[in-house]
Amino acid sequence: MFLEMMINAFRDILKTSGFLHMTWGQFIMIIVSLFLIYLAIVKQFEPLLLLPISFGMLLANLPITGIMDPPRDGHMGGLLWYLYQGVEKEIYPPLIFLGVGAMTDFGPLIANPSSILLGAAAQFGVFMAFLVALLLGFTPQEAASIGIIGGADGPTAIYLSSKLAPHRLGAIAVAAYSYMALVPLIQPPIMKLLTTKEERMVKMEQLRKVSKAEKIIFPIVVTILVSLLLPSVAPLIGMLMLGNLFRESGVVNRLSDTAQNAMINIITIFLGTTVGATASAENFLKFETIAITILGLVAFAFSTVGGIILGKIMYKVTKGKVNPLIGSAGVSAVPMAARVSQVVGQKENPSNFLLMHAMGPNVAGVIGTAVAAGVLLTLFGK
Asked: What does R_g of the chain's alpha carbons equal in angstroms?
């Protein structure tokens, strides 16, 4: 009798377990999530974001957990569904920007305003991928969301996709953060292909010292100008510049420290996990997802190309005073892209130090990608 009860109990547990409900699609997505976890932990590819994204993907594809189910028929929704409202209601990306602003020194950009041109040129890939996506049959809203991957700015990609193409958010977010993590692998071959050894060896003059007053005025002016021009990105630019004002004012160190550390870390956990949870098998295993991944690479590559080409033009115009390598840092993967410019330049000339020069285009790229998102949102937003 006891044995029969145990067998029946085991049978009932098995019937209600996820093992009998798992689909092949879910199994494949679990394997993909485990591979991404491996990249985050073992290869350390952007682990702060890739690890929560990949674990969120794992959770969403475990059958019948209900972890991403919306509330229905008087029943509570899943945990990650409630946390995901921070993405859907456009709360998390601006808060990430608040933390980024508090960690960012705009001094190199202020010292060399021409850097803003390199940040703008690096948005070339955004619009190139947008056009290609249109030709492949994506809607204008989807194409805009795919194109913004070229800016190498995950929060901006999430912000734009959540507004224009929320059904593509999982694929776009994974592609955006994956390519951000792969900056040191993707950019150097393009940089070397488009520049000569002589150009890569150029040593640039030391940047002038930027006053405290300039650093305080800069975020205020940028907020006013960009928000008036493109009101749709005021949440991103406003929070970015507020964080920077916390940093530069010197009177709210506690707020600056919180934005740089505790707050951005908490929001990163919520954002990464819930975005990863949108990558369920039924949403992710489609031809369109593969196309988005390829188009994201195209966008990122052409953004790098756009920055380097303008860098070469500036090299010619200034008669060899600008190293074209800093143009590749015009994408907004801060500070990784600037470090890549430094590493490639120093390999050609060990005495070269391009990091601070590259930080100008790098932080300009953060603003440039937000502006590009604002233009696309203005044109194609509902």
From this structure: 23
